[in-house]
Task: structure prediction
Amino acid sequence: MKGVYNIGEASKMSGVSAKMIRHYESLGLLPKARRTESGYRQYSTEDIHSLRFVRTSRDLGFSLDEIQKLLSLWSNKRRASRDVRRLVEKHVEDLNQKIVDLQRMRDSLKNLAQCCHGDERPECPILDQLAEGEPT
Result:
């Protein structure tokens, strides 16, 4: 029947693995799939769109809680776009902080690497600094 797909087809069409489809269902991100008499999952075109939405949201780094909110906003045709924008702007702020944190980690590691002679000697300033518990 056109518009009804098994989990393998849904996976290929959405770019979401079958394992993750089952996981998203178990979390309630997606409604439980309809089942055939023999118990096989069946997915509609709308389900495929939802899976793509989730995949794209995950690719952009949204948490599962944020994706749940986005899905809710997406399905609510009476929502205010400012609610969506607010959620996205908060995510951008979080990403900016992660970037700062990652840059700080990178700089610390570069400093550690520069302290090391990288030869046959057993002394290792990298390990010494790590043991002190203070990043450089």
Summary: The first strand starts at residue 4 and ends at 5. The chain has six helices and three strands. Helices lie at 7-14, 18-27, 45-59, 64-75, 81-115, 125-132.
